[in-house]
Amino acid sequence: MPLPSAGPPWVLDRKDLGLLLASLRSSGYRVIGPRVRDGAILYGEVKEEGELPIGWRDRQEAGTYRLERSEDLRVFDFHLGPQGWKPYLFPPHHLLWTARKDGGTFRVEAGATTDGGPLAFLGVRACEVAALRVSERVFEGGVPDPTFRDRRAALLIIAVECSSSAPTCFCPSMRTGPEVTQGFDIVLRELFSPWGHRFLIEAGTDRGRELLQPLPLRAAAEEDLADLEAQRQRVREGIHRALPVEEARGVILANLEHPRWEEVGRRCLACSNCTMVCPTCFCSTTEEVPSLSGEETQRYRRWDSCFGLGFTQLHASSVRSSISSRYRQWMSHKLATWWDQFGSSGCVGCGRCITWCPVGIDLTEEFAALRTKAASTGAKAGGVPA
Ligand code: SF4
Ligand code: SF4
């Protein structure tokens, strides 16, 4: 059978989804996908279809997340949980190197950059595909990070387009979703209608096309494409939060002394949740773990956060001792100075930081407060650097 072409999309019946998992596994991929764990949908190894969150959906709002059962047994009828794909490419705690005494000198061995065989991420949403692109700029621009580089090079991305939206989403205004249009090896679009429960499936790379080859696919018919169109419209209509990416840098940089920073600093707990769940945050620290024998020492990299007081310690004191200054640092880096550093926004509009903030701080609301003032004072709210 010839390799499925790039288009028109193909249809995979719901009952045949397990064959895709089998095709991935027989090609040597360890599949990482969504699973229900600890009252949330988290990513983990998926060995069989029954481990996916079939018939689960979530309710989320600022500071709130609940899982509930749904009756229609869709496979991907949920939104983002607290965990992104970041831990698989940028591990939270990672051995960088070990130094051992060797006679009168010492030897240094680099830590392993990968962890087992190649990974296939199953269920990457449009904003998460965008977050991976942002992370590539961070970790692979300039001096590449070997751990990220090696893991990313072996990675297969199976995107899943959102079939509904959460109230915390704002990807359209960040130009990152909700449709998946690029950056995938395979994309699935789950359709559930009187025409049946099935997936529109499309390959974006030769690797993806090879994996589709053993699957029983049929060409999409008019009703499949009409269902997709209606679904996409519903998803877009359901997204009400917004943060205009083109304006963000100008508004923030024109308002670095705005009283709103003090106000949000009184609500913020500096708990770091927003940075831990964010798919693009990358702050880290290093720690040294010497052996008791004094024969060797190991250096680890561990996730850190710009909300931590210790993270801003320079010599004897912190350069950002107030919570308001740390919140301003986080938001102004994400939305403004990230452009200067990496040539893109650091935010992709996934909404995780809104849901998982224990006091419900919402960066779209914070931005709107700055923007109102910016408009009223005539501050220039334009653009991003060329
Ligand atoms: S800042 Fe918030 S909305 Fe933006 S990418 Fe990070 S977690 Fe998502
Ligand atoms: S904004 Fe919310 S999640 Fe982030 S540090 Fe403050 S309280 Fe924690």
Keyword list:
386 residues; alpha+beta; eight-stranded mixed sheet; four-stranded antiparallel sheet; 13 helices; binds iron/sulfur cluster
Tell me about this structure.
This protein has helices at residues 17-26, 86-89, 126-140, 146-153, 171-174, 206-212, 222-237, 245-253, 260-267, 273-277, 323-342, 352-355, 363-377, and strands at 10-13, 30-37, 40-45, 56-61, 64-69, 93-102, 105-110, 119-124, 156-160, 186-193, 196-203, 218-219, 284-290, 296-303, 313-314, 317-318. It has an eight-stranded mixed sheet, with helices on both faces. It is α+β, with helices and mostly antiparallel strands and 386 residues long. The longest helix is centred in the C-terminal third of the chain and has 20 residues, at 323-342. Mean pLDDT is 93; it is low at 375-382. The chain has 13 helices and 16 strands. The protein has two domains: 10-91 and 114-237, no CATH class; 245-283 and 306-377, no CATH class. The structure holds iron/sulfur cluster (2 copies). Residues 268-274, 307, 357-359, 361 line the site of one iron/sulfur cluster.
Number of domains: 2
Q: What hetero molecules are bound to the protein chains? A: iron/sulfur cluster
Q: Output the helix-strand order.
A: EHEEEEHEEEHHEHEEHEHHHHEEEEHHH
Spatial extent as radius of gyration: 23 Å
End-to-end gap? 47 Å
Would you report the number of β strands?
Answer: 16
